[in-house]
Amino acid sequence: QKEVEQDPGPLSVPEGAIVSLNCTYSNSAFQYFMWYRQYSRKGPELLMYTYSSGNKEDGRFTAQVDKSSKYISLFIRDSQPSDSATYLCAMGNAGNMLTFGGGTRLMVKP
Amino acid sequence: NAGVTQTPKFQVLKTGQSMTLQCAQDMNHNSMYWYRQDPGMGLRLIYYSASEGTTDKGEVPNGYNVSRLNKREFSLRLESAAPSQTSVYFCASSDEGRQPQHFGDGTRLSIL
Description:
The complex is a heterodimer of chains A (110) and B (112). By secondary structure, chain A is mainly β. Chain A contains no helices and eleven strands. In chain A, the strands form two sheets. In chain A, strands 2, 4, 5, 9, 10 and 11 form a six-stranded mixed β-sheet that branches. Chain A has a five-stranded antiparallel β-sheet with strand order 1-3-8-7-6, with no helix packed on it. The mean pLDDT of chain A is 94. Helix content of chain B is 0%, strand content 52%. Chain B has strands at 4-7, 10-13, 19-25, 31-38, 42-49, 56-57, 64-68, 74-78, 87-94, 102-103, 107-111. In chain B, a hairpin with a 7-residue loop joins strand 9 and strand 10. The radius of gyration of chain B is 13 Å and the shape is globular. The relative contact order of chain B is 0.34. The interface between A and B is medium-sized, with 25 and 24 residues.
């Protein structure tokens, strides 16, 4: 079993939909959590970064962490075709090392 | 602001050839990383350098060597390329202490 599990998709939604992307993890030592967006033929780009359980909002994006359930989510409101990308969750413990999920491919159709 | 710059962007090699992938960052970060990304496998850490002058193995180091040339530059070398090393290679950098990593746009490497 992988330390971080993420449904690979693809997830296809109509423009304007609310998107929910999720990761589960098994290592209770993970302390901080990130979401990256990766466009085709580009490197991962940091979207959201949080230390604590609860919600963190940034524009149309909300990151949610539930440490008791070992579950994190990224919500995208009013999704746009430009949101079409692969979304990677990542998490780390005390040091600088990150463990990545395999990524979920999202397609937002006009 | 360039961030993390990787060269080359694309490369095709024959089995047994050697090659060095270059990475440079202009964010004054102490830590640098090399990953490979394969379909269905996600990002896997090859080597990292926590600070100038130090390097350590990651999850998949076999067949690779690295050099932290200075604070800005971290290179990855394939001494004798194998088809199993066909992948997209990403370099990243970060500050110390639970800081996010910032990635370059990758080198797409095919080994025939």
